[in-house]
Amino acid sequence: MSLTPPSPPAATVLDPVALGRLRELDPTGQAGVVRRVLSTFDGSLSQILQNLERARGSGNVDEIRRLAHTLKSSSASVGALDLSSACARVEGLVRDQALQPLPDALAVLMREGQAALQAVRRQLDS
C-alpha cells in the first residue's frame, strides 16, 4: 500500500482558461503551438527545479530569487497558477530579506513544480 497521495488531475493544476488562450493561438492545432509551448515548459521546468535544488542546498538566495522570478511568468502562461504564486512568494521573501520562512516557501514551490511537471506531461501524453 502506497502512502503517496495520488497526483492531482491536470485540470486542477493547469488552469483551463490559460490553456484555452494558448489553443486560441492555433485554433486548428495544425501548427502544434500548445504542444510546443508545453514541451518547452516541461524542459525548462525540469532544469529550473534541478537548479533550485542546487541553489537551496548551497544557500544561494540570489540564485533562488532569480530562478523563482524566471519560473513565475512562464508557469502563469501555461496555467500553472499555484506554481506561479509559489514563485512570487519565494521571490518576495528573498527580495525583502525575510529568510526565516524561505525553507517552507521553497518546499511549496518544489511541490507545486513537481505537480505542474506531472500535469504538463499528462497533457503531452494525451
Topology:
Elements: H1 10-13, H2 16-24, H3 33-58, H4 61-77, H5 81-95, H6 102-125
Helix pairs in contact: 3-4, 3-6, 4-5, 5-6
Short description:
With 126 residues, the chain is mainly alpha-helical.
Word description of this protein:
- The chain has 126 residues and is mainly α.
- Helix content is 75%, strand content 0%.
- The radius of gyration is 15 Å and the shape is elongated.
Q: Class by helix and strand content?
A: mainly alpha
Number of extended strands: 0
Shape: elongated
User: Approximately how much beta-strand content do the residues carry?
Assistant: under 5%
The percent of residues in helical segments reads over 70%
* Largest sheet data: none
Rg is 15 Å
Write down the secondary-structure element order.
HHHHHH
Low-pLDDT residue spans:
1-7
The number of helical runs is 6
Distance between the termini: 28 Å
Mean pLDDT: 91
List keywords for this structure.
126 residues; mainly alpha; 6 helices; elongated
